[in-house]
From TrEMBL:
Region (Disordered): 424-453
Compositional bias segments (type: Low complexity): 426-445
Keywords associated with the record: ATP-binding, Carbohydrate metabolism, Kinase, Nucleotide-binding, Transferase
Name of the molecule in the record: D-threonate kinase
Gene giving rise to this polypeptide: dtnK
Protein source organism: Paraburkholderia solisilvae
UniProt similarity note: Belongs to the four-carbon acid sugar kinase family.
Length: 453
């Protein structure tokens, strides 16, 4: 038995699949169909247990996204019908703040894979579900900056979103989830399948709630698939009965000499705070590339100067923070275009790097694609949602950290940098700087922000 995770962006694929790597399962994130097929062959031979495919469908038209994910499941797991498909289990990873085409994708998968068990809660990152509504650190999703930025005027409630796509839904409330005996919970879910329910929305406010759901679904004999974020995936990964073979030995992490590049494409307030702390603690140089330069791509007169400005510190072995700026013309829909242009500026210098920290799924995918890296093997995580990986073929001496833009604590980027440097924050005041187990000394004279050349 193996697992196929289908995600709509790269950082989501990684933060969902990392729980399986943490549990000792060889886990590969594939950036395309060919890489996923190779990973599937590895799964069949026992070298990998979990494949996380980034379909790169978040910015597609809904109908195109639906076709892409249905094709992925048919090609990699579901060609012989819903019951035969359970030889490889399906997990449709969705964004915990419901961004992207997840409804259209779930509706396309449901006839192929059975009941959609919808549980997007990720309590470790402050995302919970109550009465079929997502909350972000206690605030209804529809009232958050994240939702208003991209979905102003649209409902953020799960049931109407799914029913608008033609799916027959039901809800499993928190009391029923917690109070019903395990066998009764299994029967309750099976009864909904018998009654023609196509999408079951499940409340969850803690990891314990998700663990109850994970155990109950594994006891089902009916065809189904999971729809969730990294929260439910972690609880599934912790259950040894999910797989019918012993876990193969995971790949050992490696550290190499060289500079670390932190690449930030997300403009979320969370990322801004994380960048500020990274600069404060390390004294790292920051370059903020104006969007106009990226929109102009190869035709912008300052492109060569920016490419040189990025390359100079990296060639000298100096760590660097590079961000996409924001202007009055900024549109969230242009994220992929800006990320691709930024990756083109960085690509000539990637050979200097020992580590890459990429924030934002579009940014991470663009950078890896520009570098010719088609798949990653996950190693560990810095904190929930912040995954550490290296290229699957191990041909490049590069360790990669990916993080969704709105994920993580204020320390996430700094923690990723410390991890790549093999350091930790000081255990107590008075620790000597620059030593393992202590806070590194700032890079004197390098702390400044450059936004023009």
């Amino acid at each position: 038995m193996s697992m196929l995770i289908v995600a709509d962006d790269l950082s989501g694929a990684a933060d969902c699949a990392i729980g399986f790597a943490n549990a000792g399962r060889r886990t590969v994130v594939a950036l395309g169909a060919d890489e996923a097929v190779q990973a599937a062959n590895d799964a069949a031979s026992g070298r990998a247990a979990v494949i996380a495919l980034d379909t790169d469908s978040r910015r597609l038209a809904p109908a195109d996204a639906a076709r892409r994910v249905a094709h992925a499941w048919q090609a990699l797991g579901g060609t012989q019908g819903v019951r035969a498909a359970q030889r490889r289990r399906l997990y449709k990873k969705i964004d915990s703040t419901l961004r992207g085409n997840w409804v259209a994708e779930v509706a396309a998968l449901q006839p192929l894979a059975g009941l959609a068990i919808v549980a997007p809660a990720f309590p470790a990152t402050g995302r919970t579900v109550r009465d079929g509504r997502v909350y972000v650190r206690g605030v209804p999703l529809g009232e958050t900056e994240t939702w208003r930025l991209e979905h102003a005027g649209r409902t953020a409630d799960l049931q109407p979103m799914l029913e608008e796509a033609g799916l027959r839904t039901a809800q499993l409330g928190i009391e029923r989830l917690r109070d019903a005996p395990a066998d009764a919970l299994v029967r309750a879910i099976a009864a909904r399948i018998e009654n023609g329910v196509q999408a079951l929305i499940v409340d969850a406010q803690s990891e314990a709630d998700l663990n109850l759901l994970a155990r109950a679904t594994l006891a089902l004999n009916d065809a189904f698939f999971w729809v969730g974020s990294g929260g439910l995936a972690r609880e599934l990964a912790a259950l040894p009965e999910l797989f019918d073979t012993a876990a193969p030995s995971p790949l050992a992490p490696a550290r190499h000499d060289g500079p670390i590049l932190t690449l930030v494409g997300s403009l979320s307030a969370v990322s801004v705070e994380q960048c500020a702390l990274l600069r404060e603690r390390t004294g790292m140089t920051e370059l903020t590339v104006p969007p106009a330069v990226l929109r102009g791509a190869a035709n912008h007169p300052d492109r060569a100067a920016w490419r040189a400005a990025i390359g100079a510190p990296l060639a000298a072995g100096v760590d660097l923070l590079v961000r996409i700026g924001r202007d009055d013309a900024f549109d969230p829909a242009e994220g992929a275009q800006l990320s691709t242009a930024l990756a083109a500026l960085v690509e000539p210098h990637i050979g200097h790097l020992a580590g890459l920290i990429a924030t934002g799924g579009e940014t991470a995918r663009a950078m890896l694609s520009a570098a010719g890296i088609g798949s990653l093997e996950l190693l560990t995580e810095v904190e929930p949602g912040v995954a550490v990986a290296q290229p699957s073929d191990d041909a490049r001496r590069l360790t990669i950290v990916t993080k969704a833009g709105a994920f993580g604590s204020e320390h996430a980027l700094y923690g990723a940098w410390l991890h790549l440097r093999g350091m930790q924050e000081p255990a107590q005041p008075g620790s000597q700087p620059g030593q393992p187990g202590s806070q590194p000394a700032p890079q004197a004279g390098r702390a400044h922000e450059q936004t023009s050349l």
